[in-house]
Amino acid sequence: MKDHIQQLLEQTVSRLKEQAVIPAELEPRVQVDRTRDKSHGDLATNLAMMLAKPAGKNPRELAQLLIDNLPASELVAKAEIAGPGFINFFLNSDWLAKQIEAIAASERANIPQDQQQQTIVTDYSAPNVAKEMAVHHIRSTVIGDAVTRTLEFLGHKVVRANHIGDWGTQFGMLIAYLEKMENDSAADMDLSDLEAFYREAKKCYDEDEAFAERARNYVVKLQGGDDYCLTMWKKLVDITMAQNQAIYDRLNVSLTEADVMGESLYNPLLPEVVADLTEQGLAVEDDGATVVFLDEFKGKDGNPMGVIIRKRDGGFLYTTTDIAAAKYRAATFGAERILYFIDSRQAQHLQQAWLIARKAGYITDTTTTEHCAFGMMLGKDGKPFKTRSGGTVKLADLLEEAHQRALKLIGDKNPDLQGEELDRIATTVAMASVKYSDLSKNRTTDYVFDWDNMLTFEGNTAPYMLYAYSRIQSIFRKAGVVGSELTGNIVLEHDKEEALAQKLVQLNDAVHGVANKGMPHLMCTYLYELAGAFMSFYEACPINKEGVSEEAKDSRLRLCQATANTLKVGLSLLGIDVLERM
Q1: How far apart are CA 390 and CA 378, in angstroms?
Q2: Helix H or strand E segment including 371
Q3: Residues 6+ apart with CB under 8 A from 499
């Protein structure tokens, strides 16, 4: 709706330029907002007030000219001038009803794919090899996945890049210890064993010089492509990723083994990148290291900041890897947009890597690079979320606790539920609650993890969303109908019907908000408002009660189906499954 009105106004501005009412060189940013008071219409713009001075006209006079030149549209019932020059638009109820009918009949809730398709790389999750995923990995994983799903829904070609930490000097130590512990048993090792394995390997490295020497030799051999070392290294990677995949599957995250693009992928490119940056004159030798000095970043002394891309000992840094990754993604995939879901503390690191990649011509102006930064996950004490003993909370443990809490919650509310059905519903509620609790918060801020708020049926929570959907399915069962098979016209007579319809057609805005800004909380906020509008409608507009005409009943049932489709689509874009019963 907002997009349509915006397009009408842009066409109107073009007409007024042709009439020399508005200066031809002006390129105004047309903004359309929803009104808070429905007596002032459904949508409004301050365009006339913005353009009045350059047009040399009174704002209300220009507002009238805009209205007079507005192209005809079945969407707009009327447009009025308010106050000093606002233009208020009142939407056509018949048009609105037709939109809701289309939403009710569409599994996509009538959301079209974008006309201009892009190739987009999304970099998210990024666990480390030989370590279990901790709770801090969840933010990158679920936020990145929600945005990725949304971009794919709109028809874009999305390349998932799980940039795992699978390279570095620690692998010499791990290979040496794996050899010491008889590597044939490695396939039976689980990730918790592997963490203990890592600690023991480090202990050997620190205390046994012969072991440390062998470990250092294995690093050199691994980096040189030695077959034996590569085989041992791959065992460690495979153990890690097989168990991480189990977490992705449990969380309903769309990452697969095929999406793994670890640091090792870019390792062969690093010497070439350093050589090229040096040849271009971007990198110089400084105290034995290879450094790129950036005028855009200043050190404490006010001089250009030096970014090391190769250390004195010949080793490379994360910045070098990220420069190579940007080059690879632009060249290999033709990426037009690259999104990194990494915490906010990495902002300067990424900006520097991307700036160097642009200066080198590895990525051009046709490719955007976006750091979708997020804050920290905190406990109720306002400090980073930890166990009671102060240790790191493992993601697998958190998911299991969520499952046990959901079993009790659902079991207490539905004593008749037993066995597999109870477990299935509890699993859906648990994973949805963990994800929604994170996704519903603005990703740019820290957020407090709270079990009680997460698993409540009140407020902007997953249980409330899932309940709203299952409530609609209950209405259909009571009416003896199948929602997807309903036909007939929708008639918007009650103000709560109108309000629900108005909210339903805003899904497109929410979807594009997530896609364009990388902000899943915009979808959560929309779904919460939609569920609230539905509950208000349901209380005010009876459906299965005696005395309701068949025409009103059919219309309201179709409104229910449109709401169910919209909730299902919105939740699916967050990676959350709906429940027919709760």
Answers
A1: 13
A2: strand 368-371
A3: 533, 536, 537
pLDDT tens digits, 217-243: 998 899 888 999 999 999 889 988 998
What is the spatial order of strands in the sheet that 33-34 belongs to? 33-34, 43-45, 86-91, 76-82
Nearest-CA neighbor of 329 among 575, 541, 532, 159? 159
Instruction: Please tell me the distance from the alpha carbon of residue 525 to that of residue 529, in angstroms, as a whole number.
Output: 6
Q: At what angle do helices 521-540 and 462-479 cross, to 10 degrees?
A: 40
What are the residues whose beta carbons fall under 8 Å from the beta carbon of 54, sequence distance 6 or more?
Answer: 22, 23, 26
Tokens found for residue 435: 């994800």
- Residue 343, SS3 per DSSP: strand
HSE-CB for 8 with a 13 A CA cutoff: 23
The token pair at 439 is: 């996704």
Whole-number Å distance between alpha carbons of 212 and 204: 7
Residues 120, 122, 123, 126: is their CA dihedral positive or negative? negative
How many Cα atoms sit within 13 Å of 551 on the Cβ side? 4
CA 522-513-31 angle, 5° bins: 115
For 168, the token pair is: 């570095």
pLDDT band at 36 (very low <50, low <70, confident <90, very high): confident
pLDDT in tens, 246-269: 999 999 999 999 999 999 999 999
CA atoms of 379 and 196, how far apart (whole Å): 26
The residue type of 450 is D
Task: Report CA 571 to chain centroid distance, whole Å.
Answer: 12
Residue 466: closest CA among 424, 500, 520, 509: 424
Sign of the Cα pseudo-torsion (35, 38, 43, 49, in order): negative
Asked whether the beta carbons of 481 and 548 are under 8 A apart, the reply is: no
Question: What is the helix (H) or strand (E) element at residue 403, kind and residue range?
Answer: helix 395-413
β-strand pairing of 368-371 with 377-378: unpaired
pLDDT tens column, 257-315: 999 999 999 999 999 999 999 999 999 999 999 999 999 998 888 899 999 999 998 88
For residue 42, is pLDDT > 70?
A: yes
Strand partners of residue 304: 298
545 vs 440: CA distance, rounded Å: 35
pLDDT, tens digit, 9 for 90 and up, residues 421-449: 999 999 999 999 999 999 999 999 998 99
466 or 185, which is more confident: 466
Distance CA 266, CA 278 (A): 18
